[in-house]
Write a structure and sequence with these properties.
This protein is of the alpha/beta class. Helix content is 39%, strand content 23%. A nine-stranded mixed sheet has the order 8-7-6-9-10-11-12-13-14.
């Protein structure tokens, strides 16, 4: 019974157990987030306030910016980072000269001041350039490698003669037909948009040899094959190569194109039409008139 009776503390002695608020504070200080804030957050805030106060002075900020600029300039202008010349490979002299004018640089220049991606984009904007790569070669050389567009045909339009590639994209201007006698001639509005088809027709017309003068795009929908002696083969808009092969077969069998023929109209596949020259038509009319007169 005596053990069950709690003895009262002697009067005048303090209770050693912590108070409720002290106990809560101790538990709070044991929280990981609070301990991290006291260990890292408080020093960071103090440092931030000190730095803000120090940089609030304009003179101090100017001195720091000047020191950083001098340090950067001393690094960027070191000899190993300087570019002293430009090399353009893969392009002819005229195109290479135009590229140099497009990228006017005052050498020597720091490699840190060169935007290679922007320079490559500017070079590829040139119509005669198919693709380009720009890099800085060891030794301070700005290396530009060019893949030029290859001209496959001469296109005669209202502005004159121009060289075009297989996609009809402008390559360069031509002074006259004899500037590139090795290339076929195409003409007419929309001919540049159908270069691939024109090249197929020109290849199919190879048996005509030097008689072939070129192709003319008519109404932006079909081709005329132009021969010497002002002869023309009018091809349909559908399957023009097949129609041309039929004309070549007639030429091989009957020499139709060696006669006094002005036009061979193949636009109607079921009814090809042959138009004679004016002189031949007049001569034929005269012969028929003479024949009728002799019968009287």
């Amino acid at each position: 019974m005596r053990s069950l009776i709690r003895k009262k503390a002697p009067a005048g002695r303090a209770d050693p157990a912590p108070s409720r608020w002290a106990w809560r504070m101790q538990r709070l200080m044991l929280t990981p987030g609070i301990r991290l804030a006291l260990r890292a957050g408080v020093p960071f805030c103090i440092t931030l306030l000190a730095g803000t106060w120090y940089l609030s002075d304009e003179a101090r900020r100017g001195a720091i910016e000047e020191a950083v600029a001098e340090a950067r300039a001393s690094i960027e202008t070191r000899p190993e980072f300087m570019v002293n010349l430009m090399a353009v490979d893969g392009a002819e002299d005229e195109l290479a000269s135009y590229i140099r004018k497009t990228l006017p640089l005052n050498f020597p220049v720091s490699s840190f001041d060169l935007n290679l991606d922007a320079m490559r984009a500017k070079v590829t904007e040139i119509s005669a350039v198919k693709s380009a790569s720009v890099r800085i070669r060891p030794g301070g050389v700005l290396q530009i490698d060019i893949e030029p567009r290859m001209a496959v045909a001469l296109w005669r339009n209202e502005d004159g003669l121009v060289l075009v590639d297989e996609n009809g994209i402008y390559v360069a201007a031509a002074t006259n037909r004899y500037a590139r006698p090795d290339l076929p001639l195409i003409a007419g509005e929309g001919a540049d948009k159908n270069v691939a088809e024109a090249l197929e027709l020109i290849q199919a017309a190879a048996p005509l040899g030097e008689r072939l003068r070129g192709l003319v795009r008519m109404g932006e929908r079909r081709w005329d094959v132009v021969l010497d002696r002002d002869q023309r083969i009018l091809l349909p808009s559908e399957e023009p190569q097949r129609a041309l092969e039929r004309v070549l077969a007639l030429e091989s069998a009957q020499d139709i194109l060696t006669r006094d023929v002005a036009r061979v109209d193949m636009r109607l596949a079921r009814r090809p039409t042959v138009l004679m020259t004016n002189e031949a038509a007049e001569e034929r009319s005269a012969q028929q008139a003479a024949f009728r007169a002799s019968k009287k």
